[in-house]
Amino acid sequence: MAKVRISKRTIDSLLNAAAGTIIRDDKLVGFQARKNANGTVSYAFEYRSTKGRGGITRRVTIGREREGGGVLTPDQARTIAEQLAAEVVAGGDPAAGRAKSRQVPTLADFAKEHYDAAAIIAKAQPLSAKLRIGTVRNYQSIMRKHAGPAFGSRKMDAITKADVSRLHAKMAGTPVAANAMLECLRNLYAAAAEAGLIGEGTCPAVGVKMYKKNRRERFLSLAEVERLGAAMIEAETVGLPWELKSKEGAKFVPHGDRRTMVDPDALAALRILVFTGCRLREVLHLRWDQVDLERGIITVHGKTGRRAVMLPAPAALILSQVPRRGSFVFPGRSSTAEKPAPRSNLDSAWIPIRRHAGLDGLRLHDLRHSFASFAAAGGASLPVIGKLLGHSTPAMTQRYAHFADDPVRAVSEKTAATVAAAMGIAGAVEDKGEVVEFRRASA
């Protein structure tokens, strides 16, 4: 094996040499070129993985050059060889790193395996699953529509933060989906790191700033709650009146006062949402073995894990009147003794009730916000409200701080009255908290 400087001239000569001919660079130790049987020249870097005579000789293929040029030039190959040499000097093992990289799956392959398994667990064991079935389906959709087409065919360790940032920017028109894409990638890379397929802290979505969420929050007033309650009572006693969106094209239009009774299960679930501030799935997926009427507690499993929810008297009374027809408190239509299933939604009852109450646009989740707002206005502290709602961080509860203005004002008025009396200012504040004209106390 000759030792010459590997350059364009020597490679041209090597292309005309016999197959199997190898030349080594006379300056960069380990850098070599070989003539292959198929007429190409391949570049490689050879080194010892450990110092001393007992070191193992390893070889890393850099690339190829075809007759007439193309793929890789000698100078480009030399640059790569120099980088590999520097890695060896620093104590690295380039060949081992490449072998490990070949074991890293593509993003699409890992996502399919991971979410298929997560879906099975979410259906079979919803209370202990790390991901709920709705979240799994959402992430599968993100992979199918966005992350998959962008870089699903690439190995997970080859996707960069710049790649993710470009996709996130491209999805700016749908900020909710863009943020969900980041959450999906973070979930996948955390699972891959846990499985030992990639290193810790290698997620390319980390550091990409999410778009600011425009929260849709609606808080009911007491008057609106009264209307909602009246609509529920009407729905279960005499039924809600029929409403046709349009009479155009209707062959038969009902005459007289036609009404429809609402499903009592749906009404019970709606009232529990109002009285507890629970999330919808926490109520619909509730099992009878999670209900303790004696202690007034239900144990739910939601976004933040398992938690105990205190049952106020009205909610406990409602649950005590729900008939037991299986393991779920609110079984779905397809539920059987062999395959119990929870109710999937409350739309058939909720939509006509809110319409009849004049609350179009009100979401079921807004009942949760309203529960928290009434708690704050009633004097509950933010930590207590966070405990009631099962919030994972204090920041999630902070949105209800402004509803505590009335209790704060009451304390402020009482404190001011005490200070005013000490300062000799009488009659500043009456017992009812009504502000009256200041007047000096007589000397």
In short:
The protein contains 16 helices and twelve strands. The chain is α+β, with helices and mostly antiparallel strands. It comes from Borborobacter arsenicus.
Any descriptors?
single chain; 443 residues; alpha+beta; hpI Integrase, Chain A; 4 domains; five-stranded mixed sheet; three-stranded antiparallel sheet; 12 strands; disordered C terminus; DNA-binding; DNA integration; CB
Characterise this structure.
This is DUF4102 domain-containing protein. By secondary structure, this protein is of the alpha+beta class. The chain has four domains: 2-102; 107-194, no CATH class; 222-246 and 257-400, hpI Integrase, Chain A, CATH 1.10.443; 406-440, no CATH class. Helix content is 44%, strand content 12%. The chain has helices spanning 8-15, 74-89, 94-103, 107-124, 133-151, 161-170, 175-194, 222-237, 264-276, 280-284, 313-320, 347-356, 364-377, 382-389, 394-397, 405-422; strands at 2-4, 22-25, 31-35, 41-48, 57-65, 240-241, 259-260, 291-292, 297-302, 305-310, 425-426, 439-440. Helix 1 links the parallel strand 1 (2-4) and strand 2 (22-25). Helix 4 (107-124) runs antiparallel to helix 5 and helix 5 packs across helix 7 (175-194).
